[in-house]
Amino acid sequence: MREEQVTIKDEFGMHLRSIMSLVEVAKSFKSEIVVQFGDEIADGKSPWALLALGIIAGSKITLRAEGDDENEAMAKLLQLAENNFIRPEESPR
Amino acid sequence: MRRVFTGINASPGIAIGRAFILSRTLQRVERKTIPEKRVPKQVKAFLSAIKKSMKEIETIRARLGADKAKELSTVLDTHIMLLQDDALRNDVIKIIEEQKVTASWAVSEHVGRFNKMLANLGGEYLSTRVADLNDIKNRILRNLGPGGGICCLDEAPEGSVVVAQDINPSEAVQINTARIVGFVTELGSKTSHSAIIAKAHEIPAVVGATGVLQNVKQGTRMIVDGIDGKVILSPTRKQLAEYENKRQSYKYYVIELLSAADLPAESRDGFRLAIEANIESPADVKTALRHGAAGIGLYRTEYLFIREGRIPTQEEHLASYKQVAEEIAPHSATIRTIDIGGEKLVDAVEMPPQRNPALGLRAIRLCFSRREIFKNQIKGILRAGLHGNLKIMFPMISGIEELKKGKAIIEECKKELRKAHVDFNADMEVGIMIEIPSAALTADILAPECDFFSIGTNDLIQYSIAIDRANEEVAYLYNPLHPAVLRTIKMVVEAGHRHKVRVGVCGEMAGEPLYALMLMGLGVDELSMNPVAIPAVKKVIRSSRLCESLKIASKALGFQTADEIEAYIYNVMSKRYPQEIATSLFF
After folding, report:
1. Is the pLDDT of residue A93 over 50?
2. pTM, whole model, 2 decimals?
3. If both were cysteines, with which of B15, B122, B359, B542 could B224 make a disulfide (CB 3.0 to 4.6 Å apart)?
4. What's the CATH number where B328 sits?
5. Mean pLDDT over residues B76-102, rounded?
6. Which of B205, B236, B254 is a domain's end point?
7. Residue A91 has pLDDT above 80, yes or no
8. Is residue B243 part of a domain?
9. Would residue A92 count as lying in a domain?
10. In terms of domains, do B239 and B281 share one?
């Protein structure tokens, strides 16, 4: 199992679009992806569950990946977090 | 069955098409418990509503025009993902089964919980998503209702005449001009959103046509006469021929006007007025240029908030303003900072309920209290200023303190951009809307602190005469020709000119050919209007003389009542410019 902590830098916290990017990446891997915020955890493939975490700007969250492709999944997730959860093709022109 | 209806001619032209009834009347959902044995049926209904909703969104996405495709499809993708999520299915089904309630209630309850939870987090966080969740909720609820029903302008087939109670701004931005040929609403006035949008898209429209909805059926053939304010359902063959004629002749008149649109607005004795366009989105610049606008005098930026359904980021502000700056070059564009609040509410910005919104937290006042929203926009403008000639304009300034405060925030933004090593234009003109009587009365105090004035006549009239123009009981008192309004314009022009400050007019009044010479005679330097109004106003100015306009203005100022002024102006102008006045949008 892989586990990493990241900080949410976006001034609006984890908003809908960033949640969507995360879900899309999570869904592209077989591994189970879990996001933990405080004591609560959410399935990284469920936008409603992630929304329910209520992650505001500056929060530290833990990303967890477990499965055959956990290393690749974590690498992609960290890359996404680095980019403020905006997929590269979506960045402002 | 009644077939002919009269309303207000809100956007000129003739449309012949088939009715597309916009029904978004949602029943208030109430908590209803159901017997145990009906639970499985409710679960099934819910699941099929989700499926239908997803299919609807796919259809909308497939029909999207190329220009809007990127922005909107991201939003639509988001909605599909939210609908696909098993968590939504499980949670709602759990509510239905445990509480033994209807699917409609369970859906509202579920989304309501999220909204409440997000509200408790407070701040900007909430506003970025509540709109999307509500949109999804409403879509599911609609699909749970009897027969579903059409909800979305994007689904209108080719040749549709949209018939609705009223059209709200978030619906208006999805208008596909290729398929919608006309508009009819039961409510509204010449200055309501539906009217403004219809004019901007050059779609014939009649508003305030009471009774149409009761008599029209989906797909009924109908005629919209936006010149005389008439709506005809199921027209006879004779009527069809007559109106086809009228449609053609109006088209030729417009072509003739357009062909001269690029000529400058210069009177026969060489006096020039700057004629600019009011726009709502970067896409409108093309229309503005086609109609001969020499600049953008008012860019209403609220639509960025409405289109996104959330608070735009600084980068999104930048992208829109940059596009406008580049496309309008070498002319300038005046960007009005957001005027949200009052009657202009957007889902993206949560507002506390106000007893008197027109006099409450709105426009610049809202910006001062929600400073981050404001600063993001200012920074976007400052950065876009590198790509063309942009100006900043503050709405709803009531006195010098607010102007100074606004300017201080601009300086603060510059400092922060410098610190972040982001390039911007540090030398940008800053002006204000004059739309509150207190600003007009202190124009001489405000003038030394800014580069230009723009008189927003819509609000100025409302605040000067204390008239809510949306209130049908008193709307008759709303008159641009009230002596107080003319005196105010004159006073502001004089105060501005004493301090070498240019004075423009950017309300609906500016786009009215009937008033063009009077405003010119009052000394106004710039008129900014709905792009489609430009050719006719230019034509009037080009065939006039300055001395004539000065005479009209001074004569108008001598009357005691709006009626006398109106009679005088109408008499003079309709003799001089019969065709322009006949097809004018106001009379």
Report:
1. no
2. 0.59
3. B15
4. 3.20.20.60
5. 91
6. B254
7. no
8. yes
9. no
10. no
Q: Distance between CA atoms of A12 and B224, rounded to whole angstroms?
A: 45
A53 catalytic? Reply is no
Q: Look over chain A and give the mean of its residue pLDDT values, rounded to a whole number.
A: 87
In which domain, by residue range, is A19 found?
2-87
Clarify whether residues B249 and B265 are in a common domain.
Answer: no
Give yes or no for residue B28 having a pLDDT over 70: no
Question: Domain check: are B168 and B137 in the same one?
Answer: no
Tell me, yes or no, whether B451 and B568 share the same domain: yes
Helix axes B562-576, B546-557, angle to 10 degrees: 160
Which residues of chain A make contact with B125, given a CB cutoff of 8 A? 12-13, 15, 54, 56-57
pLDDT over threshold 80, residue B200: no
How many structural domains compose chain B? Answer: 3
Number of domains chain A contains: 1
Single-letter code of the amino acid located at B330: P
Cα nearest neighbour of A58 on chain B: B125
The enclosing H or E element of A23 equals helix A16-27
Does residue B241 sit within a domain? yes
Q: What is the rounded distance in angstroms from the CA atom of residue B25 to the CA atom of residue B4?
A: 25
ipTM over 0.90: no
Selecting among B193, B201, B291, B482, the annotated active-site residue is B193
Q: What tens digit of pLDDT does each residue of B8-26 get?
A: 888 889 999 999 987 655 5
For residue A51, the domain's CATH number is: 3.30.1340.10
Residues of B in contact with A13 (CB under 8 A): 121, 125
What is residue B586's predicted lDDT score, i.e. its pLDDT? Answer: 40
Alpha carbon B196 to its chain centroid, in Å, reads 6
Identify the helix (H) or strand (E) that includes residue B277.
strand B274-279
Residue B196 has pLDDT above 50, yes or no: yes
At CB < 8 Å, which residues of chain A contact B? 11-13, 15-17, 20, 23-24, 43, 46-49, 51-52, 54, 56-57, 90, 92-93
- Under 8 Å between Cβ of B550 and B519: no
Q: In which domain, by residue range, is B564 found?
A: 261-582
| A32-37 and A2-7 beta bridge pairing | unpaired
CA proximity to B212, closest of B186, B230, B235: B186
